[in-house]
Amino acid sequence: MSTAPVKAKIEMKMGMATREAYGAALLEVGKKNPNVVALDADLMKSTFSVKFAKEFPDRFWTVGIAEANMVGIASGLAMCGKIPFASSFAVFIVDKGFDQLRVGAAYPHVNAKFVGSHSGISLGEDGPSQMSVEDIALTCALPGFVVLVPSDEVSTRALVHKMVEHVGPMYLRTSRPKAPIIYSEGEIFEIGKAKVHGSGADCAIIACGLEVGFALRAQAELADEGIHVRVIDMHTLKPLDEAAIALAASECRAIVTAEEHLLDGGLGSRVAAAVAKSHPVPMEFVGIRDTYAESATPDQLLEKYGLSTPYIVKAVKTVLMRK
Q1: CA–CA separation, 107 vs 130, rounded Å?
Q2: Which residues lie across from 204 on neighbouring strands?
Q3: DSSP readout, 238-268?
Q4: FRET label pair with 245: which of 56, 115, 194, 253, CA 20 to 30 Å apart?
Q5: What is the pLDDT of residues 255-265, one digit of tens each?
Q6: Are the C-beta atoms of residues 307 and 211 closer than 8 Å to each other?
């Protein structure tokens, strides 16, 4: 576990979207390692794999609207010694390609990397058919898969570099909206090691993706009311940093999880299982509650479905009342 400082009065500058940071990082690793290749399913301008395609056209393939086939091709390339990064919207590459992810990537444990962009409901106006709210549960269920959910552009770039170093199948979840910059350039990330912001002992907020920014704002608001929390950026959903969770459970009165995903099978479910093995404490869960969303702006959707800062603040206050 590593520790990062709390941002005073939380003034976070908005940076690029994690999907855009992925595109920049993919180009970086492609320049360093000639075995890195990339594939996309007719959405390279949206996933930002277009940056790699322009620089290395002979190492890039677009397969059209055939995501399951793309997963199979990526797995085959991995078996030939390449390090393929296959990207598309999360709902297409994971939900449509799950059988191929299971049989072609997980079962033979190939060294293929899969990237799901436009995840969650912050996709916005494109509507529920384009929103993957199940992808974390599905990919975490695949034996041997590593599942990453970065929170900002710095963590995204760092984790993409780690993906090249790690041997085995991996899934990276990126988002459409611009994300606040949480980390300074050069911050070191390790797969399976959470980032901890602050040392508050009233409650631990464990979050991933865009919810980390909301959690840090909630931390600042709660501090003004005399409630001191720590925020844990669980950028690796699998393998989970159970040591960080156990420490938080032993030092804090309660735990709140926050995720842009269905509560069933997501971050909250995984954290609860870890807490039950270590130091059971009261928990509350911020996430999508057994429903699909509508078509609206990202901000409207995050507010309607209870994923923004006020709902994290409310969850903390609610869980502390039970202690």
Answers
A1: 27
A2: 230, 255
A3: ES--HHHHHHHHHHSS-EEEEEEEESTTSHH
A4: 115
A5: 999 999 999 99
A6: yes
Q: Give the active site residues.
A: 67
pTM: 0.94
CA 56-29-13 angle, to 5 degrees, is: 110
In angstroms, the CA 154 to CA 186 distance is 8
What tens digit of pLDDT does each residue of 202-233 get?
Answer: 999 999 999 999 999 999 999 999 999 999 99
Question: Which residue carries 């940056």 as its tokens?
Answer: 51
Going by pLDDT thresholds of 50, 70 and 90, the confidence category of residue 12 is: confident
Give the pairing of strands 2-4 and 195-197.
Answer: parallel
How many Å apart are CA 259 and CA 311, to the nearest integer?
Answer: 12
Per-residue b/e over 149-162, b at no fewer than 16 CB within 10 Å? bbbbbbbbbbbbeb
In this structure, the dihedral spanned by the alpha carbons of residues 278, 281, 286 and 292, taken in order and rounded to 10 degrees, is 70
Scan for tokens 């206050």, then name that residue: 317
Distance CA(169)–CA(78), nearest Å, equals 9
Is residue 1 pLDDT above 70, yes or no?
no
Interatomic CA distance for residues 244 and 224, integer angstroms = 25
Helix (H) / strand (E) element for 39: namely strand 36-40
